[in-house]
Amino acid sequence: MKINFRIIVLIVVLSSITGLLVNYFNPKGVTFIHTERKLQTAEALSGINLSSPDPQQINLPQARTLYKQKVVFIDAREEDDYNLGHIHNAINIPYSNFETMKERLSNISKEDVVVTYCGGSDCDLSILLADKLFADGYKKVLVFFGGWDKWLTANYPIVINGELYNAEVE
After folding, report:
1. What CATH number is given for 40-165 in this structure?
2. Among 98, 60, 63, 105, residue whose Cα is nearest residue 78
3. Which helix or strand (DSSP H or E) is residue 101 part of?
4. Are 124 and 161 in contact (CB under 8 A)?
5. Which listed site, 65, 115, 138, 167, has its alpha carbon 20 to 30 Å from 50?
6. Which stretches does DSSP call E strand in the chain?
7. DSSP letters of 125-139?
8. Three-state SS for 63?
9. Beta strand pairing status for 158-160 and 85-87?
10. Domain boundaries, the chain
11. Which position has the higher pLDDT, 26 or 118?
12. How far is Cα of residue 151 from the mean position of the Cα atoms in its chain?
């Protein structure tokens, strides 16, 4: 049996092109050239520019202040991660399912301040979700850098497996 190397090369080339095209159009596709997104950091709570053309990054003390003001927190992680543990009163809208789950925003005005967060400082789902919210008309979007990991470490109010911990007395 004679091996036809032309056919093998053609199959490999067509398979590679197909794979690259599928990856390119897939929102969860692998980025080959990653450019790190830098958000403007709000230096102090009063320094948050709610008319900024982009989401701004906030830190733990700023997130805590906004939480006490009953600002809406949105967890960008997958539903399984959210169900295991999340910031108390946060709603879950996974970045990967934004279009099918954005009805959870129906009670939130596009003029309201919202804070997105995800697993920690190495997670960019909160930035990606903030961009989607901006595109959907929400213009007062802040990204809590450090997210769940920092909130959990700080012993602030959380829900783990449906049970409230570190509840505050009002």
Report:
1. 3.40.250.10
2. 98
3. helix 98-101
4. no
5. 167
6. 40-41, 56-58, 72-75, 85-87, 91-92, 114-117, 141-144, 158-160, 163-165
7. HHHHHHHHHHHTT--
8. helix
9. antiparallel
10. 40-165
11. 118
12. 15
CB 104 within 8 A of CB 138: no
Residue 39, Ramachandran bin (φ over 0: left; ψ between -120 and 50: alpha; else beta): beta
Alpha-carbon span 44 to 30, nearest angstrom: 35
Task: Look up the pTM and report it.
Answer: 0.76
3-state class (DSSP) for residue 55: coil
**Hey, what are 168's tokens?**
């505050």
To the nearest 10°, report the CA torsion of 83, 89, 94, 100.
110
Question: Tokens at residue 123, please?
Answer: 């997670």
- Give the tens place of pLDDT for each residue, 5-43: 888 888 888 888 888 877 777 766 666 654 555 677 776
Tokens of 57: 């990054």
